[in-house]
Design brief:
The chain is an alpha+beta fold and about 270 residues long. The chain has eight helices and seven strands, in the order E-H-H-E-E-E-H-E-E-E-H-H-H-H-H. The protein has a four-stranded antiparallel sheet with strand order 1-3-4-2. Strands 5-6-7 form a three-stranded antiparallel sheet, with helices on one face. Strand 3 and strand 4 form a beta hairpin. The chain is flat.
């Protein structure tokens, strides 16, 4: 008989939001995580998000023009979705002070190897931005000491007198220019080196150990079943085998959680 492993890190996907008469709803995976608890420690919630590769944003009803005024009744409230793609509802409910909607989204993976490749053959050294105050609509120029008096590395347009140019746009472009100059290839390589260093020190991560533990559940459960059948001198029924498997799986899950808590206590 083939027994299926219930993965701890199943992919959490968007689901149709079917709100109750008061406008409340909870994603089944989020509800499973909360397990009836009204308060979740922040560190535990952060771990849950990290395990499932999620990020979150919170929207409060009182911050929304259509939030309504009836306490506990969210039926007329349509929480505003955060900027960007991929957001889905994880939770819409009331709290002691306000209604809240928790939006979830899968984190974007960054290809660090590709990022390092992009730093190759770039202008070395410290970059700086020359933008003055942009009061006359001039562009920002990104330079470095090696190119002093030569063609700039890049020019960031302020919009000048273009019809769609605004002070907000000019300020955004100024910030873009300064960021590009500050996060130059030398800095990017230093950040990547720092990440690589800490990854090398981590070695085998707790997540990797947990995954290995759960991948061994079926084999270990079958060993327990074989041992019980030898002691009882009979075959276990399908229901008994499933009970053994669930018990072994629960023991492994508890062990994984205990390991996680112990590591948190030592940090």
């Amino acid at each position: 008989m083939k027994m299926k492993l219930q993965a701890e890190t199943a992919l959490i996907t968007p689901l149709p939001v079917e709100r109750d008469e008061y406008g409340c709803w909870t994603h089944p995976e989020y509800e499973k995580f909360c397990d009836g608890r009204e308060v979740i420690p922040e560190s535990e919630f952060d771990d849950w998000l990290s395990t499932h590769g999620l990020t979150m944003q919170v929207v409060f009803r009182n911050d929304s023009p259509d939030g309504g005024s009836d306490e506990g009744d969210f039926s007329g409230w349509e929480p505003e979705k955060p900027e960007g793609d991929g957001w889905f509802v994880g939770y819409i409910h009331d709290t002691e002070s306000d209604g809240v909607c928790i939006w979830l989204r899968h984190r974007e993976e960054v290809d660090l190897h590709a990022l390092r490749q992009l730093t190759e053959n770039t202008t070395p050294g410290k970059w700086y931005c020359e933008d003055d105050d942009w009061s006359d609509g001039d562009n920002a120029i990104i330079m470095c000491d090696l190119r002093n008096g030569m063609v700039p590395i890049a020019t960031i347009g302020s919009g000048g007198s273009a019809p769609d140019s605004t002070p907000t746009f000019a300020a955004e472009q100024r910030a873009n220019a300064r960021f590009i100059a500050a996060f130059n290839p030398t800095v990017a390589r230093a950040v990547l080196d720092e990440l690589a260093y800490y990854k090398s020190r981590l070695g085998i991560t707790p997540d990797a150990i947990d995954t290995a533990m759960f991948s061994c559940v079926e084999g270990y459960a079958m060993s327990v079943i074989n041992s019980l059948e030898f002691e009882l001198e009979r075959k276990l029924t399908d229901d008994e085998q499933q009970a053994v498997y669930r018990h072994v799986e629960n023991v492994v899950a508890v062990a994984a959680r205990c390991t996680s808590f112990q590591e948190t206590d030592h940090e």
